[in-house]
């Protein structure tokens, strides 16, 4: 008789995934409304089923073992399907409209996945999506013109917001763009930026000033597509994340360019109490973001 395959416990998988995403199983316990000891017991059960340790300490942080990294990918997919099935069972009871705003960086990559998954589970909900920049998005939330908004983390915020994760900031340009030659000759770096005000524009110019690297604004645009087109044409370099970056561009590595760290992604909501439709969309976004990071 063939040996029956293991059936992983969904709640244990959820605790594992949440702990890794938050970088702490104590925070995972708070997020999931469980005790720390219950989360630890679930992790131990998963490790027994997997036959290996899943996490290990790396300084003050958690690090995945090789087996843990393998299980994490499967766990996210299993939970996503589980939650989609759960949402589908209640789809007939959910209707209305949700007004969603998001940064252009997220639109091309994330919006199709969000709309596809959400529409399958909640066919009676109408989504009104607007792609914009940080300031209009936060204004829309504060003035109750948007229900949810996905933005970069900056100095300004809203009363009801939650961090979703962080992405590294990169100097990006065409593969043939010789940034080292410009740096060696002390020629001002041509920057491709959004019209002011812009979080990444400010971060780029401030970092270059601190490093003593001369720069000039070579191209400004109101759209991310314009920035990518200018970079592809070799007009200069830009500071962005790699989310939505065209395949024709690359992360420019030069020892003289300042390291830029990372930037947070924040999900804002207009009210503390959400409609059922808005709450389901919020859950969908929270589930899909880690999947984008893991690619």
Automatic annotation (TrEMBL):
Lineage, please?
Bacteria, Pseudomonadati, Pseudomonadota, Gammaproteobacteria, Enterobacterales
Q: Which family does it belong to?
A: Belongs to the LysR transcriptional regulatory family.
Lipid biosynthesis among keywords: no
Which species is this record about?
Rouxiella silvae
Recite the UniProt keywords alphabetically: DNA-binding, Transcription, Transcription regulation
Give a yes or no for keyword Acyltransferase in this entry.
no
- Per its record, how is this protein called by name? LysR family transcriptional regulator
Highest rank taxon of the organism: Bacteria
Which residue numbers delimit the HTH lysR-type domain? 8-65
What Pfam families does the record point to?
A: HTH_1, LysR_substrate
